[in-house]
Amino acid sequence: MKLSELIKQESFASPAQKALLNVMVSSSWVMNELSSMMATYDITPAQYNVLRILRGSHPEPLTCSAVGERLLDRTPDVTRLLNRLEGRALVERQRASHDRRVVEVGITKQGRALLKRMAPEVEAVQQRLTCHLSTHEQRQLSDLLEKLREDQ
């Protein structure tokens, strides 16, 4: 659907404004679609992201701050995310042996199993949301969005 139809606005102050509004609307749409699918597993996209990060470092644990640095959505409340995941036995935290002040977190067997169960549905949502784009266009979109964030 065209942005002008979606937000009931025919003109924009500039192409930059229209482009950024398109990014914001698209981001919201993608997150809503992912949230709906993930809700069936009683997990949020932020929690999924933490599990995905920890799976990537497995079997090595990461510090809580390292997890926070890798999050897609930079939330200051990594502790709350980890508390919820630990309460469901999807992650485990422990004090680092080299420095007792440092807390390290790792994904559990249950966390890896959950990601494995979710994988087909995550892939299906990704395919459904990008089905109108060719592989070349998907790469082009990624390149353009990375270029947009160049000064980040």
Architecture blueprint of SSEs:
Elements: H1 3-7, H2 15-39, H3 45-57, E1 62-63, H4 64-70, H5 78-87, E2 91-95, E3 103-107, H6 109-130, H7 135-148
Antiparallel strand pairs: 1-3, 2-3
From the alpha-carbon coordinates, what is the Rg to the nearest angstrom? 19 Å
Mean pLDDT: 93
Strand order of the largest sheet: 1-3-2
Strand content: 5-15%
Q: Which overall shape is indicated by the principal axes computed on the Cα atoms?
A: elongated
Distance between the termini: 29 Å
- Could you say what the CATH architecture of the domain at 46-147 is? Orthogonal Bundle
Helix content: 55-70%
Q: Tell me, what is the CATH class of the domain at 46-147? A: Mainly Alpha
Please state the oligomeric state of the protein chains shown. Answer: single chain
Low-confidence stretches: none
Query: Would you list the SSEs in sequence order as H and E?
Result: HHHEHHEEHH
Explain what you see.
The protein is mainly alpha-helical. It has a domain at about 45-145: Orthogonal Bundle (Arc Repressor Mutant, subunit A), CATH 1.10.10.10. The protein has helices at about 5, 15-40, 45-55, 65-70, 80-85, 110-130, 135-150; strands spanning about 60-65, 90-95, 105. It has a three-stranded antiparallel beta sheet with strand order 1-3-2. Helix 2 packs across helix 6 (about 110-130). It is elongated and about 60 Å long. The two termini are about 30 Å apart. The model has no long low-confidence stretch (mean pLDDT about 95).
List keywords for this structure.
single chain; 3-stranded antiparallel beta sheet; mainly alpha; 7 helices; Arc Repressor Mutant, subunit A; 3 strands; about 150 residues
